[in-house]
Amino acid sequence: MRLLSQLAIGEHATISAIEAEESLYHRLSALGFRVGKPLSLIRRANFNGPLHVRLGTTDVILRDTEAARIHVQSDLQASQ
């Protein structure tokens, strides 16, 4: 299992767990981050800046610290 913050640009994955305090968990859930939901990393800003993540047709910008709370399973790992 990897963290969303560790994905490479263009990589597709599925959310497997979200480990965050209640307020952040609810915020992420409201943005569409739910276990089992597929996502992809579109781009990453320089110097540990925010990540541009696509969930279906929705684009979300996340801080690296928030992305480090989201566990994902790469689609390559799931097919093996």
Account of the protein in words:
By secondary structure, the chain is of the alpha+beta class. The protein has one domain: SH3 type barrels (Roll), CATH 2.30.30. It has 3 helices and 6 strands; from the N terminus they run E-E-H-E-E-E-H-E-H. It has helices at residues 22-31, 64-67, 75-79; strands at residues 2-3, 12-18, 38-44, 51-55, 58-62, 70-74. A 6-stranded antiparallel beta sheet has the order 1-6-2-3-4-5. A hairpin with a 2-residue loop joins strand 4 and strand 5. The chain is globular. The two termini are 13 Å apart.
What is this entry, summarized?
The protein contains three helices and six strands, in the order ββαβββαβα. It is of the alpha+beta class and 80 residues long. It has one domain (2-79): SH3 type barrels (Roll), CATH 2.30.30.90.
Distinctive features:
80 residues, alpha+beta, SH3 type barrels, 3 helices, 6 strands, 24% helix
